[in-house]
Specification:
The protein has 259 residues and is of the alpha/beta class. The chain is built from seven helices and seven strands; from the N terminus they run βαβαβαβαβαβααβ. It is 41% helix and 14% strand. Helix 3 packs parallel to helix 4 and helix 4 packs parallel to helix 5. The structure holds NADP nicotinamide-adenine-dinucleotide phosphate and D-gluconic acid.
Length: 259
């Protein structure tokens, strides 16, 4: 079988990829041959990200862009097309979470999470699809979550956004599959990144809770997401569309260890 996982000659945009899951996914796509572009809302973090990629032997091109701004996103996509090439692979990774009991959360806080975690993936996908159609196809990977399927206290906005992102993934797959565009999701379990650092503080009850809820009995690492990302970004998944691939160590299959 010729190497269906090879991404040589492909241009990838990974949003919010100065560090964390985005950085790991972009690095994996680069190791498979893709040319990497990424963005961050913070200029200093774009610079730090470029250096971190360079240290990893990856020539990544970074852009300062707030993914909630359609104007900034359209400008970034146009610049990438001009400076690097048409985007073949989009990973909608940028995201935020606010852990606040719902009745204590302001409408503005709720809207902010929806804006970054759901509206922005729509904006960025809308910006890249026309050129993907012209080019004959493309890959879109939306970074969903356990909260695309499950709720829990204090994450109402995040769960609503990630649930919506699952359905946006399915809708893009439905609407643009005929143009050889495959749109899928990756649903990471609980991964050790800055976003979950508060939950992993020594003695935090969530730590032991997650270990008991995960058959793999460990937190995930960003490396656990590298293979699934390359699979969904490559020709190996050309007939996979509208699917959310949960990379969760088995959480969704498991009732949890008896205390
Ligand atoms: P993270 O460490 O908090 O990183 C999030 C990234 O998104 C940062 O680079 C951040 O930039 C960027 N970002 C936030 N708002 C942005 C905006 N408006 N415009 C551009 N960039 C923006 O998160 P992570 O743990 O790597 O998670 C990455 C993705 O995976 C998120 O979508 C998250 O919901 C999802 N996820 C995470 C886990 C987990 O357990 N960690 C599990 C499932 C899903 P700044 O640093 O400048 O704010
Ligand atoms: C939380 C966590 C989770 C993870 C992830 C799980 O507070 O429950 O932050 O939401 O980030 O989304 O898949």
């Amino acid at each position: 079988m010729e190497n269906k996982f090879c991404l040589e000659g492909k241009v990838a945009l990974v949003t919010g990829a100065s560090y964390g899951i985005g950085f790991a996914i972009a690095s994996a796509l680069a190791k498979a041959g893709a040319r990497i572009t990424f963005n961050d809302i913070n200029p200093e973090l774009v610079e730090k990200g470029v250096s971190a990629y360079k240290e990893a032997g990856i020539e990544a091109k970074g852009y300062v862009c707030d993914v909630t701004s359609e104007e900034q996103v359209n400008g970034m996509v146009a610049a990438i097309e001009q400076e690097v090439g048409v985007i073949d692979i989009l990973v909608n990774n940028a995201g935020i979470i606010k852990r606040i009991p719902m009745i204590e959360m302001t409408a503005a806080e709720f809207r902010q999470v929806i804006d970054v975690d759901l509206n922005a993936p729509f904006i960025v996908a809308k910006a890249v699809i026309p050129s993907m159609i012209k080019k004959g196809g493309g890959k879109i990977i939306n970074i969903c979550s356990m909260m695309s399927e499950l709720g829990r206290e204090t994450v109402s906005a995040y769960a609503a956004a990630k649930g919506g992102l699952k359905m946006l993934t399915r809708n893009i797959a439905s609407e643009y599959g005929e143009y050889n565009i495959q749109c899928n999701g990756i649903g990471p379990g609980y991964i050790a990144t800055p976003q979950t650092a508060p939950l992993r503080e020594p003695g935090h009850p969530f730590n032991s809770f997650i270990i008991a809820k995960t058959p793999a009995a460990r937190w995930g690492t960003t490396e656990d997401l590298e293979g699934p990302a390359v699979f969904l970004a490559s020709a190996a998944s050309d007939f996979v569309n509208g699917h959310v691939l949960y990379v969760d160590g088995g959480i969704l299959a498991y009732i949890g260890k008896q205390p």
